[in-house]
Design brief:
The protein is α/β, with parallel strands linked by helices and 331 residues long. It is built from 13 helices and 9 strands.
Length: 331
C-alpha cells in the first residue's frame, strides 16, 4: 500500500505546503505514489491549482478536505501559529472512515528520505510514532538529562508541560514533536482520543505551551513510540555546538545533524522569512524553484518592523557563528 500522508494548511502556508510535498515526492521510492489529504484551512481555489501544478504528475492522488474553523474557535493561538495547528487533533473526525493509519506532516519541512520507509515502520501497538523534540526532549530536562548543566542552556524549554506534577506525569518521560507523526487513526477512534485532547486543552488552558503538542504529550503519555530522530531534525539541533552539549550520544548527534531524513524548520524563523538563519535554508529554495513559486524570494524590508527583525537576525547569526568557532577551538 502506498503511504497515506496528511497535512494541514491555510492560504499563508500554501507555498510551504507545495515545497514540503514536492520534496517528499522527489525522494519517494520509484513506483510509489503518495495518497495525500490536505486539511484545508481556507486556501483559495486558484492557489490550490498552483499547489497541485507544483508536484510531478502521476506520483500522487490529492484530496482536499474542508475544515470547519468553528471547531477550534475557542482554542488559544499566538505568534506565528494559527488554528490550523490544532487540526491534527481531530484526524479521526476529519479523515474518511476507511483510513486506519496515516503519516501526518507539518508544512514547514523538507523531506530528504523515502516516506515509504517511514510508512513501513512497525507501529508496535502505539497510538502514535514520533520523534523526541530536540528543543524540549523531556518532561523535565533538568532531572532527566545527565549532562543537564551543559545541555539545558541550549534547549527551547526544560519543562514544556509546566504542570506535569499536578497531572501525575513522570518527569523522566520523553516529550515529542508533533510535526512528523505516524498515527494509528483506528486507535484514536476507539479511544475517543480527539475529545480527550480537546478536554485537556480546555482544562489546562493557562498552562498550554506549543499549542497542540501540549495536549498530545499529556494525553499520549506512555502511549507513543519513538522514531529514529533523523525523521524529524528540529532547528534546535544547531544550538548544540558539540555532541557533549546535547542530550544525544556522539553517533546520534552526527547522524541527526548531517544526515536527516526530514528537516523541520521549527520556530518562527521560517526559511521564507528574511529573519531565517537556518543552515539548510538554501535547500528550501532549491526545492521551491521546482514548484509554481519558482524564483520567489522574501522581500527584505517592507516596513520598519521588518528592518528591526533583520537586524536581530544578523545579531543571532553572529552569535551562532561565534559559538561554532569557539567550540572548534575547544575540541
Amino acid at each position: 500500500m502506498d503511504p497515506v500522508v496528511v497535512l494541514a494548511a491555510d492560504e499563508a502556508f500554501a507555498m510551504p505546503l507545495a515545497v514540503t510535498v514536492r520534496s517528499a515526492l522527489e525522494n519517494l521510492a520509484e513506483g510509489r505514489k503518495l495518497q495525500i489529504y490536505v486539511l484545508d484551512g481556507g486556501i483559495q481555489e486558484s492557489t490550490k491549482q498552483r499547489v497541485e501544478r507544483s508536484w510531478p504528475a502521476g506520483r500522487f492522488v490529492l484530496n482536499w478536505l474542508s475544515v470547519d474553523e468553528q471547531l477550534f474557535a475557542k482554542l488559544p493561538v499566538w505568534g506565528h501559529v494559527s488554528q490550523v495547528a490544532y487540526y491534527r487533533l481531530l484526524l479521526p473526525k476529519l479523515l474518511p472512515e476507511h483510513l486506519s493509519r496515516v503519516i501526518f506532516l507539518d508544512c514547514d519541512l523538507l523531506v530528504c528520505g523515502d516516506l515509504s520507509e517511514l510508512w513501513q515502520c512497525d507501529q508496535r501497538g502505539f497510538l502514535c510514532l514520533a520523534v523526541q523534540d530536540c528543543a524540549a526532549p523531556y518532561i523535565d530536562a533538568m532531572l532527566a538529562i545527565e549532562n543537564a548543566e551543559n545541555c539545558c542552556p541550549h534547549l527551547g524549554s526544560t519543562m514544556p508541560i509546566e504542570n506535569y506534577q499536578e497531572l501525575g506525569l513522570n518527569p523522566l518521560m520523553p516529550y515529542f514533536n508533533s510535526g512528523v507523526m505516524v498515527v494509528d487513526v483506528d486507535g484514536w477512534r476507539r479511544e475517543s482520543l480527539s475529545q480527550q485532547l480537546l478536554d485537556c486543552l480546555e482544562e489546562n488552558r493557562s498552562y498550554i505551551r506549543w499549542w497542540d503538542q501540549y495536549a498530545l504529550n499529556v494525553v499520549l503519555a506512555d502511549r507513543w513510540g519513538m522514531l529514529d530522530p533523523r525523521w524529524n531534525q528540529g532547528a534546535n539541533v544547531y544550538n548544540f555546538s558539540r555532541w557533549d552539549r546535547s542530550y544525544y550520544d556522539r553517533e546520534t548527534y552526527l547522524q541527526v545533524l548531517e544526515h536527516p531524513f526530514i528537516i523541520h524548520f521549527t520556530t518562527k524563523f521560517k526559511p521564507w522569512k528574511i529573519t531565517c538563519i537556518h543552515p539548510r535554508r538554501k535547500q528550501f529554495f532549491k526545492v521551491l524553484d521546482r514548484t509554481e513559486w519558482s524564483g520567489w524570494r522574501p522581500p527584505k524590508f517592507d516596513s520598519a518592523h521588518s528592518m528591526l527583525e533583520f537586524l536581530k537576525t544578523q545579531q543571532r547569526r553572529l552569535r551562532y557563528a561565534s559559538r561554532r568557532f569557539l567550540s572548534s577551538w575547544s575540541r
